[in-house]
Amino acid sequence: MTAETVARPKPPPKWPYTLAGLTLIGIVLIAGWSLDDAKWERLPLFPGEILQYAGQMLDGVLTWPGAHPEGQADPELTYGDWWLQSLKLMGESVALAWIGTCVGALFSFPLAFLAASNTAPLVLRVPVRLFFNAIRAVPEILLAVIVMLPLFGLNPMAGAMAIGVHSIGSLGKLTLENIEAVDPRPVEAVAAAGASWWQRVRTAVIPQMLPETVAFWLYRFEVNIRASAILGVVSAGGIGALLNRVLRGREWEWGGIMLAVIIIVTILVDQLSAALRHRILHGAEATVVAV
79, 134, 199, 211: which has the fewest C-beta neighbours closer than 10 Å? Predict the structure, then answer.
């Protein structure tokens, strides 16, 4: 049988996927249109309003810092004061994220060894994994409102602890997967020499999983910076509280400055963290080549 005589299989029909997609879009449109509180007549106005607000925010960012904004109670207030206050509060948000990440790393690291299948028995693994899953499922903002704010009051410590507790669950899950992925041969060699449980973990497991675990800690720090900005909305510290008040008061110039500070600081931290993670995982020579 030659290649020309072999029947080519028919491609699967595409119309079922097209029909399913159109049906899904129709359901979403009908569900949205049936909402009683939706003000769909305002939808055509959004492009103009968004351009207007974006223009006012850009004016605030581009205005000379020594100029005085109009309509303020304090005649000595300048745009530079807004920049300084925004930077100060963003620094507080970064500090919250750093403290929360340290708390998460400090508690998740030892607990992960009690949850990994190659370092702990089943009777320990099950409750520790359930603990990781439970606290990871609760968002930071709920932890702050329900638990941390009643404990610590309206101060940055509530936000830092909410981020820290949530990070224990996330980092614990990633760390235990790192532990389970280590090469078993060094562990077996150390065990054959008569090493205890702690000696096996210290000499054969930790050296293998530590670099990638530290990289996860740095990545979690990036995620926590965004979470700390949101926690400020519930008065748990950081730049979010003032940003919420400024935007609700429609002070768009100040809001633009605050958003610019958040974006610039977040990008800087992301780039620094990415460089450190690359250095930890691939070494100094790979970092030089990548640069």
Answer: 134
**202 pLDDT more than 50:** yes
**CA-CA distance, 3 to 233, in Å (whole number)?**
68
Output b/e per residue, 253-262; b: 16+ Cβ within 10 A: bbbbbbbbbb
Which is nearest to 215 in space by CA: 273, 266, 262, 160? 273
Query: C-alpha distances in angstroms, 199 versus 69, 186, 205, 206, 262?
Result: 65, 12, 9, 10, 45
Predicted local distance difference test score (pLDDT) of residue 3? 52
Q: Give the separation between CA 223 and CA 167, rounded to whole angstroms.
A: 10
Of 259, 235, 189, the closest CA to residue 96 belongs to 235
The Cα–Cα gap between 123 and 158 comes to: 33
CA 117/CA 177 separation, integer angstroms:
9
CB atoms within 10 A of CB 151: 9
What's the pLDDT tens digit per position in 54-83?
888 888 888 888 888 877 777 788 888 889
CA dist., res. 112 & res. 175, Å (int): 6
Q: What is residue 2's predicted lDDT score, i.e. its pLDDT? A: 54
> Is residue 90 within 8 Å of 261, Cβ to Cβ?
yes
- Residue closest to 215 by CA, chosen among 161, 260, 168, 281: 281
Is the pLDDT at 285 greater than 70? The verdict is no
Instruction: Give me the helices (H) in the chain, please.
Output: 15-33, 46-62, 79-113, 122-137, 140-143, 149-152, 156-180, 184-192, 197-200, 206-231, 240-248, 252-290
Residues 40, 15: Cα–Cα separation, whole Å: 32
Residue holding tokens 């581009």?
Answer: 62
Tokens of 209: 């999983």
Q: pLDDT tens for residues 252-275?
A: 888 889 889 988 988 898 888 888
